[in-house]
Design brief:
The chain has 326 residues and is an alpha/beta fold. It folds into 2 domains: 168 residues, Medium-chain alcohol dehydrogenases, catalytic domain (Quinone Oxidoreductase, Chain A, domain 1, Alpha-Beta Complex); 127 residues, NAD(P)-binding Rossmann-like Domain (Rossmann fold, 3-Layer(aba) Sandwich), CATH 3.40.50.720. The chain is built from 10 helices and 18 strands. The strands form 4 sheets. Strands 3, 5, 6, 9, 10, 17 and 18 form a 7-stranded mixed β-sheet that branches. Helix 5 links the parallel strand 11 and strand 12. The relative contact order is 0.16. The mean pLDDT is 95.
């Protein structure tokens, strides 16, 4: 099969590789759409030791099952593979499973390829009227759905309902959409890139600003740099909640004194539970997350150029979807 291989910092090459094969309890999926994630970009830049070259990246995927009793079924893929028997899994917090794996990290190759194999329990059916390119957004949308759900649950009484999302990439945009879908009306999105800011304001009907200011009961940091954490702690209202999603850099930025004196809750959030993923997929199918028409589609064979364009800031759309058939 053809696959886009990460071979080292800023190096991606289309190559022929052995066909993916389904093991017991798994299904083989012909990939129809796979998104480029921020974590893929971190690996591409050589910043993610968890994703050593050579490796097939990509974990935001949807496609069609090949072979077996479910052949022809259209599915979106939950890429987080867990043990299903540990305390975390049994409690419905599969994202905390100590044995968790995710495709695009060894030992599991990713979905920037014609085929990928996944456990059957990780596949969620897609209705015939939903495009697979849209269904592939379930994974990044679920990341933000999970973060927003935890943040809303942690917000106490007497705290402003207004929410701030820092970062207008796919995760930040998804967080803004998830906030609205989960009942938060007053949402501000901050994004420094002028082209992306204009795109979001025009195409997504969101309140988008260059720099955040004011006090917010909920703050979602979808970037995860020291600078954005500094903004988050400055903008969190007394008693407010910061949900940290981004993995930009490891340390710095939080005003711990401010957070302590104002009883601000900080929540680190990682991926999603299986239920979050299913709930997000259903929200897509029901239209509760909007038209989801803010993506750009390119062929997988054009993947290296897509990464280079993202690296150079030449992409206004929050998400590029790669099509292995293109």
């Amino acid at each position: 099969m053809k696959a886009l291989i990460y071979e080292g910092p800023e190096t991606l090459v289309m190559r022929d590789v052995p066909d993916a094969g389904a093991r017991a309890g798994e299904e083989l999926i012909r990939v129809s759409a796979v998104g480029i994630c921020g974590s893929d970009m971190h690996a591409y830049l050589g910043h993610d030791a968890r994703r050593p070259a050579p490796l097939i990246l990509g974990h935001e995927a949807a496609g069609v099952i090949v072979g077996g009793p479910r052949a022809g079924e259209r599915v979106t893929i939950n890429p987080l593979v867990t043990c299903s028997v540990c305390d975390a899994c049994r409690a419905g917090r599969e994202n905390l499973c100590a044995a968790r794996q995710i495709i695009s990290m060894p030992p599991r190759e990713g979905a920037f390829a014609e085929y990928v194999a996944m456990p059957a329990r990780n596949l969620v059916s897609v209705p015939p009227d939903v495009a697979l390119a849209k269904a592939a957004l379930a994974e990044p949308l679920a990341v933000s759905w999970h973060a927003v759900r935890l943040a809303i649950a942690a917000r106490g009484p007497g705290v402003p309902e207004a929410a701030l999302v820092i970062g207008g990439g796919a995760i930040g945009l998804a967080a803004a959409l998830a906030l609205v879908a989960q009942g938060v009306v007053d949402v501000t999105l901050s994004e420094p890139n002028p082209a992306r800011r204009a795109y979001l304001a025009e195409c997504c009907a969101l309140h988008v600003v260059e720099e955040a200011a004011g006090q917010f009961g909920l703050v979602i940091d979808a970037v995860g740099y020291a600078a954005t954490r500094a903004v988050a702690s400055a903008c969190a209202a007394p008693g407010g909640v910061i949900a940290h999603v981004g993995l930009g850099e490891d340390s710095g930025g939080l005003d711990i004194r401010q957070m302590t004196l104002q009883e601000i809750t900080f929540i680190g959030t990682y991926t999603y539970t299986a239920q979050d993923f299913c709930d997000t997929a259903q929200a897509i199918y029901d239209g509760r997350l909007g038209p989801l028409d803010w993506t750009e589609t390119r062929g997988l064979s054009d993947g290296a150029t897509a990464f280079a364009d993202l690296r150079a800031g030449r992409v206004a759309a929050p998400k590029i979807i790669l099509d292995p058939a293109g």
